[in-house]
Design a protein that fits this description.
Layout: H1 20-70, H2 81-89, E1 97-103, E2 109-114, H3 124-135, E3 149-153, E4 159-166, E5 181-188, H4 190-282, H5 290-321, E6 327-329, H6 330-348, E7 351-353, E8 361-363, H7 364-384, E9 390-398, E10 401-408, H8 436-446, E11 450-457, E12 460-468
Parallel strand pairs: 7-9
Antiparallel strand pairs: 1-2, 1-5, 3-4, 4-5, 6-8, 9-10, 10-12, 11-12
Helix pairs in contact: 1-2, 1-4, 4-5, 5-7, 6-7, 7-8
């Protein structure tokens, strides 16, 4: 059968590209990675700041005890820092002292009161910190505001190294301060190390809590955003597909409309000459030879068929423009189609079955256009069958529509040409115009229906015409 169908409009939106889920997962992993990096960086900075505060807290406590002892004046009104420092270090408030050393302003060791091999001497940075703070002081009226430098170290064991300047109390005579002595004191840092461990655990728990909460919120937000993005992408793809289908239909409509105009012109020009040709062929001399009589009979039959086809087209055009309305049942319509094609089927030795008992009524306009479509499909089927073949036309009602199917037992359609046979001008028949199926498709759409190829293989070909019930066809047909 000389028929095929174009790609039908998509009923489901096209799927997004295959890499889209990976894009979503990758974006989520990147976002969570950035969040984790920010939390780790914040935790590291906060950990260093809190450790420094804890170390300075213990250092300030040590400095307060030492300076309190140094601030107690002697009987002479002045006090040497060495004995005062010794008295301060034996107080029970200062357990775990590993090392006590005195340095001058230049960082040179003056006295080593107590030395533990695990202790480390002050670093140049500690000396620089204390010296810079001493140089920036405006006055020394209150010795308790003297600066200090504290550093926690785990090298050789946890220890707290404190470097603080110590000064004597000025005499009641108002003599000036002597240059401050720098006391380097090393304390056992086990307790401070335990606080650091507890601090790290607390920061770690809270960091995981923050990561879990913010990660969940971020995942939900990104999921919702990508879901909306995918929905928008799906709608855009669906609308694009619909626009492509509409564009193809408009192109086909424009082509078939032009073909319809040409067809109407040809019908008008051929009607009268064909009637004269039929009369001429009928009046041929019957006394000729047998081949001549056979040729005359074929010519007369062809002329009659051509005139009948033109009369059908004229009748359809007249009904489209007229006001007369009546109804035909589907069974009556199929009986009419069988009557029109029975002679050709009989001559070819092909069985034609158009029986149905469906009583569904159709308007005269719908019936006329449907008959043209079915007759074209039946004619195409008869042209590819040999003697002994079968063409069947069936009808049934399904979901508010009428399904009319034309099936033949021919060899089927080649796969490579099925997508083009509905295009005007495309034909696989020698001398064919390629207009029949294009016009049939356009006629079906003018009835708000659809003509499709249901199947085609080595056992035959089936076309399905789906027509909605209870509707009148549009009048802008051929």
């Amino acid at each position: 059968m000389n028929a095929a169908t174009p790609a039908s409009p998509p009923t489901q939106p096209p799927r997004p590209p295959g890499g889209f889920p990976w894009l979503v997962a990758g974006s989520l992993l990147i976002a969570l990675g950035l969040l984790a990096s920010a939390i780790v960086l914040t935790q590291t900075q906060l950990r260093a700041e809190l450790r420094n505060q804890l170390a300075n807290r213990d250092a300030q406590g040590l400095a307060a005890i030492v300076r309190k002892q140094l601030a107690t004046p002697s009987d002479t009104g002045d006090q040497d820092p060495l004995p005062a420092l010794l008295e301060a270090l034996i107080l029970p408030e200062l357990p775990g002292i590993w090392s006590v050393e005195l340095y001058d302003e230049t960082g040179r060791l003056s006295v080593s009161l107590l030395r533990d091999p695990r202790a480390h001497p002050p670093t140049p940075m500690q000396f620089a910190t204390v010296a810079r703070a001493l140089n920036e002081r405006d006055s020394v009226e209150n010795p308790t505001v003297l600066p200090l430098a504290a550093e926690f170290s785990e090298q050789g064991g946890p220890q707290l190294n404190v470097l603080l300047p110590v000064e004597t109390t000025p005499s009641i005579t108002g003599q000036a301060h002597r240059p401050p002595t720098l006391a380097a004191i090393t304390l056992d840092g086990s307790g401070l190390a335990g606080e650091f461990v507890r601090l790290d655990r607390t920061l770690s728990r809270r960091s995981w809590l923050v990561f879990g909460l913010l990660g969940t919120v971020m995942s939900v937000a990104l999921g919702l955003a990508f879901q909306r993005l995918m929905r928008t992408d799906r709608l855009l793809r669906q609308r694009t597909a619909h626009l492509e289908v509409a564009n193809r239909e408009l192109t086909l409509s424009a082509k078939t409309s032009a073909v319809g105009a040409v067809t109407a012109h040809l019908v008008h020009g051929l009607k009268n000459p064909l009637a004269g040709l039929q009369q001429f062929v009928t009046r041929l001399d019957p006394g000729g030879t047998a081949p001549e009589q056979a040729d005359a009979a074929d010519a007369a039959a062809t002329a009659r068929r051509m005139k009948a086809m033109i009369d059908d087209v004229v009748r359809v055009l007249r009904d489209e423009q007229g006001v007369t309305a009546f109804e035909l049942t589907v069974a009556e319509l199929l009986a009419h189609v069988r009557q029109r094609s029975a002679g050709v089927a009989r001559d070819l030795g092909v069985q034609l079955d158009c029986s149905t008992d469906l009583p569904l009524p159709l308007s005269n306009r719908t019936a006329n256009l449907t008959a043209l479509i079915l007759e074209n499909l039946v004619t195409n089927a008869l042209q590819v069958l040999t003697a002994g073949g079968t063409v069947s036309v069936t009808a049934r009602a399904v979901d508010g529509a009428v399904l009319l199917q034309v099936h033949d037992t021919g060899p089927g359609l080649p796969t490579g040409i099925r997508e083009h046979l509905f295009q005007p001008g495309f034909s696989t028949k020698i001398g064919g115009t390629g207009l029949g199926l294009a016009l049939s498709q356009q006629l079906a759409r003018s009835l708000e229906g659809e003509l499709t190829l249901s199947g085609s293989d080595s056992h035959g070909t089936t076309f399905t015409l789906r027509l909605p019930t209870g509707r009148s066809p549009r009048t802008n047909s051929v």
